[in-house]
Design a protein that fits this description.
Length: about 140
């Protein structure tokens, strides 16, 4: 049993030091156990790993006439994803809605755009990121 030697079931504090787990119990007792006996397996879920907002570089880049923009949200957020030309004029709005946390993907079809450099901006809550992309015909 993992709790072998634990004489008092009222644990006030736990500390990991090196390869051991220490438990301070009421009454002043200290219990020690190797961590290797405590952890049998750890399962990671990809949803547990998301901690930041991210805006990926579009792919492919340069593109003609379609490209994909991927981004991640750590929390549910109101999101806008807009495309701008080099003069700062909004050329397209791909997203303008409340979205759930997780990975998202949007395809841009720029068949009605002129060749050139464009910028895409993601805004979600207080997060803002901008990336550059090139449309080559």
């Amino acid at each position: 049993a993992v709790n072998t030697g634990l004489t008092n079931p009222y644990v006030w504090s736990l500390v990991v030091s090196g390869t051991n787990l220490f438990a301070g119990t009421s009454g002043g007792g200290v219990w020690r156990r190797p961590l290797s006996e405590m952890v049998t397996s750890v399962e990671r879920h990809s949803s547990d790993l998301q901690i930041d907002f991210t805006l990926d570089q579009n792919f492919p880049n340069p593109f003609n006439p379609t490209t994909v923009i991927n981004y991640q949200l750590p929390v549910n957020s109101y999101v806008t994803l807009k495309i701008f030309d080099v003069l700062g004029k909004c050329a397209s709005e791909l997203v303008n809605e409340y979205q759930s946390a997780g990975r998202h993907s949007k395809m841009l079809n720029a068949s009605n755009f002129s060749s050139g450099i464009y910028f895409y901006r993601l805004q979600a809550g207080r997060f803002t990121a901008i990336r550059k992309m090139i449309l080559l015909r």
